[in-house]
Amino acid sequence: VLNGHDHTYARGHVPVKSPDINQEGNFKTLYVTSVSGPKQYKVDREQMKNYEVDGYKNDKIGEQTQFFQVISVANDQLIYSAYTTLGTLYDKAIITKDFSTGKKTISNEIK
How many folded domains does the chain comprise? Predict the structure, then answer.
């Protein structure tokens, strides 16, 4: 889910919760909110904790910075990269899908 309305940057995911699947990185949905305009807010870290009750895991947050995203797809991978307006790589995640099982894993390339 990509959302460009928020005034901060956040990337996180909801892991698969199943006793049969405990492999690190398995997930259901990846969420990204980003900002490219001049109106920016500080991240409310306490509010972010409220989402953890529903299983959300925060992978990367940013504030007071504008970003643009590049998404590429090759074979079994979707590569997501976020850059500052000056072109500095800020965040990168790779989603790999096993087409035989339908399972997706995420690799956080920048912490």
Answer: 1
Which domain covers residue 71, as residue numbers? 2-108
Helix (H, G, I), strand (E, B) or coil at 84: strand
CB atoms within 10 A of CB 37: 9
Helices and strands (H and E) in the chain: how many:
1, 8
Q: For 26-37, what is each residue's pLDDT tens digit?
A: 677 788 888 888
DSSP classification of residue 25: T
Strands (E), 34-111: 57-62, 67-74, 77-84, 89-97, 104-108
Q: What is the pLDDT of residues 42-98, one digit of tens each?
A: 877 787 777 777 777 888 888 888 999 999 999 999 999 999 999 999 999 999 999
Contact in structure between 42 and 64 (CB atoms under 8 Å): yes
Q: What is the pTM of this model?
A: 0.77
Q: Alpha carbon of 52 to those of 1, 40, 65, 72, 74: distances in Å?
A: 17, 23, 24, 29, 31
